[in-house]
Amino acid sequence: MRKLFAVAVTCWICSFAALARAQQIDVAFAGGSLASPGNSFSGGTLLPAEGGGAFVGFNGDVLFKPLFNGNLGVQAEVNWKGSQGLYAGQVPDRPLFYDFNAIYARRFTKYFGAEALAGIGGESIRFYSNSYTSCDFYGNCTNYLSSNHFMGDFGGGLRFYPYGNFFVRPEIRLYLINNNAEFSSSHPVRYGFSIGYTFGGSK
């Protein structure tokens, strides 16, 4: 998981190194929630639903001029549960999702655009405990344990530009999580909206 994350971050940095060739850059703040099937049992063990609660996050994309008339590029995002939940009603937890995607985005008119994306990333589930503390070499300490899973994601959104290059984007993401054994489903759906701004590009 760490190697995959390092490779993905490196690719993202290299993409931003080509900003001089970019036709359009979009940055946004996201809000929404997560939907998944309800609780289930496996071998007598309760597997709680992962859905529910408010999620927040950040995302951004870069579209490049030579690719499909400037409509194709790269995108990255991170989203996490805004407050801690209670895993199985007992242990405080908080899931976090991050992903790196190829994106096709097009602005059809001055006021409307759309996008579709797909890529890979990971889920990090953090379980909190006041009795657990882990510190690194630099003295940075945490009070949680993480369970990490590789995932793929698919999604899209509609962009509405009410004023200039400011946009509001209803959006949806399907996460396909590998071995998401802590919860009742490996394919939760995040839905919500982003508020952002488009740099460059025109219509």
Describe the overall structure.
The protein is mainly β and 203 residues long. It has a single domain (2-200), classed as Beta Barrel (Porin), CATH 2.40.160. Helix content is 8%, strand content 62%. It contains one helix and 13 strands, in the order H-E-E-E-E-E-E-E-E-E-E-E-E-E. The strands form three sheets. An eight-stranded antiparallel beta barrel has the order 1-4-5-7-8-11-12-13. Strand 6 (85-87) and strand 7 (91-107) form a beta hairpin. The longest helix is centred in the N-terminal third of the chain and has 16 residues, at 2-17. It is elongated and about 55 Å long. The model has no long low-confidence stretch (mean pLDDT 86).
Task: Name some characteristics of this structure.
single chain, Porin, 8-stranded antiparallel β-barrel, two-stranded antiparallel sheet
Shape: elongated
Q: Return the structural class.
A: mainly beta
How many domain modules?
Answer: 1
Known CATH architecture: Beta Barrel
Task: List how many beta strands DSSP finds.
Answer: 13
Question: Percent of residues in helical segments?
Answer: under 10%
Q: What is the first-to-last residue Cα distance?
A: 40 Å
